[in-house]
Q: What sequence folds into this?
């Protein structure tokens, strides 16, 4: 997860810039957040757990605040707003019609209906 990598990178930088002996890495769990649909998310912090629209807004604010630069934040916010009201999804699937998967889950080109 990104939070582990960020904390490891910070500890590595501290250790490399230090003249003393290296200190071991200790992970500090800041919690988890995940979107699970439109207007729906879950937030799981150390002493606080909530879900729904408020969690979804919290997820968006945290992710916007983590972006560097005001221009990036505005572009992402505008893209999210446009997608929200347009009901468009960035998900695009390419499917081959009539393709029958072989035993290994890969479509065999010779087997079409």
A:
């Amino acid at each position: 997860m990104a939070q582990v990598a960020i904390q490891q990178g910070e500890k590595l930088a501290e250790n490399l810039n230090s003249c003393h002996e290296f200190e071991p890495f200790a992970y500090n769990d800041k919690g988890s957040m995940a979107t699970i649909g439109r207007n729906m998310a879950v937030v799981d912090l150390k002493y606080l757990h909530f879900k729904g629209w408020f969690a979804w807004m919290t997820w968006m604010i945290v992710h916007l605040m983590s972006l560097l630069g005001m221009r990036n934040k505005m572009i992402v916010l505008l893209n999210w707003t446009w997608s929200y009201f347009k009901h468009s999804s960035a998900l695009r699937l390419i499917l081959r019609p009539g393709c029958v998967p072989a035993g290994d889950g890969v479509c065999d080109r010779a087997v079409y209906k």
Q: What stands out?
A: The chain has one domain: 2-112. Residues 2-112 form one domain.
